[in-house]
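User: Sequence in, structure out. Go.
Assistant: Echoing your sequence, followed by the structure tokens.
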Amino acid sequence: MARKDELGRAGEERAAAHLTRCGYAILDRNWRCADGEIDIVAAKGDRLVIVEVKTRSGIAYGHPFAAIDERKLARLWRLALAWARAHPDDARSRRIRVDGIAIIGGDPATGAIEHLERLR
């Protein structure tokens, strides 16, 4: 497995643990359909939260959130609706929100973590 893939996987583990500590229930991880993949699907209260996780070893190429442009955000919303259609019992009566989690550091277990609710 390539270093960037290992970094990304470790970042997703850290993000899921962070969400759980903050009271979110993890409903799905790495969910795929024809339109793409959702890193984490979580729920908290009346919210269904689609989480995009970006992990970087540093900021030489910019902040991880900079990689979530308008095109990526539109895709995340399409994926959120597809997930909700595929899981009506989990999605029923919940409002959808798209969040981002950025992890910066050579070791995702100890790197800085930032959770941005309601991306753009």
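User: And one key feature?
Assistant: The first strand starts at residue 25 and ends at 33.
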